[in-house]
Amino acid sequence: MSQQITVFDLDDTLICGDSSLLWTEYLWEKGIITDHRFIEADQKMMADYSAGKLDMHDYLAFNLQSLNQVHYEQVDIWLTDFVETKIKPISYPAAKKQLDIYRQQNIPIIIISATVSFVVKKVAAALGVPTAMGIDMVMKDDCYTGSILGIPTFREGKVARLQQWLTEQNLSPQHIFFYTDSMNDLPMCLFANEVFTVNADIRLQKEARNHGWKQLNWVL
């Protein structure tokens, strides 16, 4: 049983970009969505997220309308292409190196992201990380709805979901490493034993200085 685990945020931490935003862009470029309001909603989402005032329920209720008539297997086909074309080219080399180090040390790695889980899990698999959590969505007629299932992996929800997972796995690690770029992850930072910020936003940089967290700058 491992005495240590490592938790990574995904967007702007392991990859140089936001997978949720890039996914909408991908659907737009492929002509799968044609209503510009989805692009505008994503831009507003990023602004609200950065300001720490995002209503995740409202955002996903609108955003997932684009897929509510699409069978999940078709979504998965698009996701495979999306990861190859949009995500792999923007994965930080330093992140890959860090993941390899933890793998060599047999330290379990978990990705926890505030993006929907069907995107997060596909990206995580491409990064060689089998354990990943995102925001789970209610399914109806084998399609994704805009309703959140369970606790969303957002802010303090990341801590709750991690605790839930640790209980399920019968794990009680003595040491938790955590990597993130965002002030939204402060609850997870305070829960972890050792924090590494990656290209942190201004507010998280301040917290990192106050707490003595190591600040990393990763580039493509």
Structural class: alpha/beta
- What is the N-to-C succession of helices and strands? EHHHHHEHEEEHEHEHE
Query: What is the fold-level CATH name, i.e. the topology?
Result: Rossmann fold
Regions with pLDDT < 50 over 5+ consecutive residues? none
Q: Helical proportion?
A: 40-55%
How would you describe the overall organization of this protein?
The protein is of the alpha/beta class and 220 residues long. The chain has a single domain (4-216), classed as Rossmann fold, CATH 3.40.50.1000. Helices cover 46% and strands 19% of the residues. It contains 9 helices and 8 strands. Strands 3-2-1-6-7-8 form a 6-stranded parallel β-sheet, sandwiched between helices. Strands 4-5 form a two-stranded antiparallel sheet. Helix 6 links the parallel strand 2 (109-116) and strand 3 (132-135). The longest helix has 16 residues, at 72-87. The mean pLDDT is 96. One of its GO terms (molecular function) is hydrolase activity. This is Putative hydrolase, haloacid dehalogenase-like family. Keywords: Hydrolase, Magnesium, Metal-binding. It comes from Xenorhabdus bovienii str. kraussei Quebec.
Structural key phrases:
220 residues, alpha/beta, Rossmann fold, 6-stranded parallel beta sheet, two-stranded antiparallel ribbon, 9 helices, 8 strands, globular, HAD-like_sf
Task: Give a nutshell description of this structure.
With 220 residues, this protein is an alpha/beta fold.
How does the SSE layout of this entry go?
Layout: E1 4-8, H1 19-29, H2 37-51, H3 56-63, H4 72-87, H5 93-104, E2 109-116, H6 117-126, E3 132-135, E4 137-140, E5 143-148, H7 156-168, E6 175-180, H8 186-191, E7 194-198, H9 202-211, E8 214-216
Parallel strand pairs: 1-2, 1-6, 2-3, 6-7, 7-8
Antiparallel strand pairs: 4-5
Helix pairs in contact: 1-2, 1-4, 4-6
InterPro entries: HAD-like_SerB, HAD-like_sf, HAD_hydro_SerB1, HAD_sf
Keywords: Hydrolase, Magnesium, Metal-binding
GO molecular function: hydrolase activity; metal ion binding
